[in-house]
Amino acid sequence: MTTPVRTAIFPVAGLGTRFLPATKATPKELLPVIDTPLIQYAIDEARAAGVERMIFVSHPSKAAIERHVMDDAALRAELQARGKTAVAEALEEAALCPRADDVVFTMQHEPLGLGHAVLCARDHVLPGPVAVILPDDLILDAPALPEMIDAYAGGHMVATMTVPRAEVSKYGILSATGTAGRVVAASGMVEKPAPEAAPSREAVVGRYVLDASIFDALATQTPGAGGEIQLTDAIARGAGAVGLSGYRFSGLRFDCGSKAGMLRATLHLAAQDPDYAEVLAEIAPAAVRAA
C-alpha cells in the first residue's frame, strides 16, 4: 500500500514582479480572485486532499501571508462586536489555527529557484511522499490534488494537461510512454522544448506528488536555467529510479501568474454567480464593440 501523502509544501517566496506595482506591498499570493486570495484556494485544496502538515516557504518581506493564513482572534472579536457574525465565522473557517492545525513557516532568503524552495522545507516534512502546490496555478471546479493522491501509486507524479503543440515551449513536457485512464506513464520530462522537438503535448502544471527521494536529488542538483535549482530537473533525474507519471486532472486551470490568467479566472467565477450577471451583461457588448 502506498504511504499516504501527509505534507503539502507551498512555495510562496517569489516577488511577483509581473504584477508590480500591485505586489510592491501585497504578496502576489494574496491577490484576490473576486474576494478570495490565491493562497486560500491552495490551502482549501490541500485540506480537501487530507494532508496533515502545511509548510509555507516564504520570504521575510512577505509577513502578510502568515497574517492571512493564521487565525486572527482579535479581528474576529471586533467583527463579532460590530454584529458581523457571518464574516467572523467565515474568517475562522478559512484560517489555520496553531492549536488545531499543523502549520510551519520557513524562509527562502535568496531567489534560487523552485527546487531550492522545496528543499528549504526538507527539515519540516513528515515521513513519506510530499505534495507541492503552486498557488499561481489556480485549478477551479475540481481540485487537482485530491484526485492525484487517489491515483498515486508511488514515485513522482505531476499534474498535466494536453496543450496545443504550438504552446509546448511554455511548459515542462512529459516524455509520455503510455496512458491508463487519467494517468500518463513517462520516462522523463523536457523543460520548454521547441514544438518540433517536444516528446508529447503533456504539459506539467503546478501540482506535484513527489517521492521523498526528491530532497536528496535537490540537495545535489546543479543549477539549471537562470542559474536556479530547477524542480523539474530533479524530478527528471529520479524518473528512472523511482518512476514518473502525469495525471490529467479534471478541473479547469488558470495561469494566475499572469494578468490575463487572473482576469480569466475572475470572469469564470463571476459567470457562475448570479450577483455578477448584470455587470457581465454590461461588459459583453462593450467587449464585442472593442473587438
**CATH architect. name:** Alpha-Beta Complex
Overall body shape = globular
CATH homologous superfamily designation: Spore Coat Polysaccharide Biosynthesis Protein SpsA, Chain A
Overall average residue pLDDT = 92
SSE order, one letter for each helix or strand: EEEHEHHHEHEEHEEEEHHEEHH
| Estimated radius of gyration | 20 Å
Strand content: 15-25%
Alpha-beta classification: alpha/beta
How many distinct helices? 10
CATH class descriptor name: Alpha Beta
Distance N to C terminus: 55 Å
Per DSSP E runs of 2 or more residues, the count of β-strands stands at 13
Structural domain tally: 1
The description of the largest β-sheet is:
9 strands, mixed
Using the coordinates shown, work out and report the CATH topology.
Answer: Spore Coat Polysaccharide Biosynthesis Protein SpsA, Chain A
* Low-pLDDT residue spans: none
Strand order of the largest sheet: 5-4-1-6-11-8-12-10-9
Secondary structure: helix percent: 25-40%
Organism: Roseicyclus persicicus
Catalytic activity: alpha-D-glucose 1-phosphate + UTP + H(+) = UDP-alpha-D-glucose + diphosphate
Protein name: UTP--glucose-1-phosphate uridylyltransferase
Family: Belongs to the UDPGP type 2 family.
